[in-house]
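Design request, tokens follow.
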């Protein structure tokens, strides 16, 4: 059986980052669930702050440098995406949105997505449903029902008093694992008519050397 490919994208800006910590927890639970079911999993994790300059250059010039192109290729061939962003001014981080903007729009079609977000207060938790989920739905991805928000007080605490952060992480990871296990994007990966490079790369005049 071909291993399922999960890509993890963290848009945290600090080091260490609670955004990366949440992303790692979501990935760990999803991998554990899939492996318990006998499904092999490969995980690639990308810190968007390491790609910030490349993302900006791509937006301006239409060219993806090698490190960014690796991330874009990983997303386009993934069986599942875990996307986690801090919430700034009631919505996703600008760096997070800029990364989504340089992805080939077709690359996310039918892709299971587990959404995570972090913020200082639980009041920002609704951003998952009014800002982030519509973004992925518009791109024809399949965001799982449970989005996981972690406020500062959730770490090591009882969360929102209804369900602890570990419980919410596990629930989201389980829903995500269900979709990843069933998805088959091999036809997309092996499509003989697929572009060798992202469309933006071709428009930038760098179709080949």
């Amino acid at each position: 059986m071909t291993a399922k490919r999960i890509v993890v994208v963290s848009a945290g800006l600090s080091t260490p980052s609670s955004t990366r910590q949440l992303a790692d927890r979501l990935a760990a639970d999803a991998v554990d669930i899939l492996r318990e079911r006998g499904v092999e999993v490969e995980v690639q994790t990308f810190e968007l702050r390491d790609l910030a300059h490349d993302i900006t250059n791509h937006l301006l010039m239409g060219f993806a440098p090698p490190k960014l192109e690796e991330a874009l290729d990983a997303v386009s061939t993934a069986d599942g995406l875990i996307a986690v962003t801090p919430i700034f001014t009631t919505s996703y981080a600008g760096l997070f949105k800029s990364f989504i903007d340089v992805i080939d729009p077709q690359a996310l079609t039918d892709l299971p997505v587990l959404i995570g977000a972090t913020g200082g207060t639980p009041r920002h938790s609704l951003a998952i449903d009014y800002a982030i989920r519509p973004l992925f739905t518009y791109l024809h991805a399949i965001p799982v029902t449970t989005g996981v928000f972690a406020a500062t007080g959730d770490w090591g605490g009882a969360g929102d008093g209804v369900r602890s952060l570990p419980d919410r992480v596990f629930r989201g990871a389980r829903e995500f694992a269900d979709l990843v296990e069933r998805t088959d994007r091999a036809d997309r990966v092996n499509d003989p008519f697929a572009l060798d490079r992202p469309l933006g790369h071709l428009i930038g005049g760098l179709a080949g050397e």
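Comment from the thread starter after seeing the answer: thanks! The chain has one domain: 4-203.
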